[in-house]
């Protein structure tokens, strides 16, 4: 079952389970749409995998199968991955 992590690993933006702005790879590394597209260009910096839209769990199922509360954040963020202008 997906963890539905609560934040972007790059910028720490909140990504609640109902958010359509979350992107994940096959290892569930989680990023917001802004970081996934403008900084990471659709590629996970951790595993090299493709970043795709994270499925949303139906609200009725969240009580029994809650989203993760564990925040994962890259210590240095993803600024070093940004292409120079």
Automatic annotation (TrEMBL):
Classification via InterPro entries: DUF1272
Listed name of the protein: DUF1272 domain-containing protein
Organism for this UniProt entry: Ramlibacter pallidus
